[in-house]
Specification:
- The protein is an alpha/beta fold.
- The protein is built from 15 helices and 8 strands.
- The chain has a 4-stranded antiparallel sheet with strand order 2-3-1-4. Strands 7-6-5-8 form a 4-stranded parallel sheet, with helices on one face.
- The longest helix is centred in the last third of the chain and has 22 residues.
- The chain has 3 domains: 135 residues; 58 residues, Alpha-Beta Plaits; 137 residues, Rossmann fold, CATH 3.40.50.
Amino acid sequence: MSNDSYEIAAEALSLAEARRGSLRGILFSLKGKSGRNWKSVYALAHETQRFHEVLQAAIEECSPVEELCEGLRDRKLWWLVRVLCYDATIGSGRKKVRSRKGSIARIVSKNANVLVDAIEAQHGGQWHNRNDLLGNGDDAKGLPRYARINLIKGTRERALSIYREEGYEVAVDEHIPNLLVFPSGTDLHSHETVGRGEVILQDKSSCMAAEAISPQRNWLVLDACAAPGNKTTHLASILSSMGSTIRPCVLALDRDEKRFQILKDRVKNAGAEDLVQCTRTDFLSIDPASKPFCDVKAIVLDPSCSGSGLVNRVSVSKSSDEEHVKRLDKLAHVQKLLLKHALSFPNVVIV
């Protein structure tokens, strides 16, 4: 498929999202621009829209692609990621995708196997017919969407009021009091509350770490592998709401340059710059006896599997059993080192 086809399909989807017309009507208006590839563009746009929920859930399980999306403000580029993800996974051939937006296409292609694995995990194994991914009846409803209240900038009551006034169906999660639950298919990426950092799009499972730590008011907490930063800002939000007087109250570390920049951007957007000290370094290089680390009371240790370069969650069909075992052994070894190091901090009471 031509590079232009992906971008035209993404343009059509972004215009439809902005309510500039029906997707079908917009695609017909772009027929001249599409030229001989119009039928391919038409099918690509419609199929990406049809499988949007499946793709979104897979992206949320693939850190490099999710972080790419978080950094995009242009909705056309945001949709381009999904169009490329569709063609690299569910689309016929599961091919290596190319686009004039080369860096975006490279990230999607590099992580295509991770995305396929995530889709297979959602649906109980390999699929033979793409329509099987959509399910039927109750199965088609999909998982709910979650949004965490950032207590540094907003309140649950204010967020609920805004969403309900705008007609959103929303509830409070039964386990996490500042986590809102929306029906499957709800898209808040461009909502003003998200843009202002009052609400942070974060899956429930990702929120469990800070909730499990349950930090006390003046604890100093360390997030050892912090990027992209959702757990970091969640910890800061909890401590801020408790009236913590410690500054900073969260130490956030990450060694990867690009991921570290995403971490800093998220901390800034959350209004947590005075609460969080971001440091680009390897957690294993930290001396637990040195200041301020010797005062740390709790450590969040959540090393990235898919994005760390240690293991790529390729399906068994894509790599030999021996290669798969080697990757898992390497990952297990590094995670053991990280855990042993975390347990060596003198004042830590929970990891």
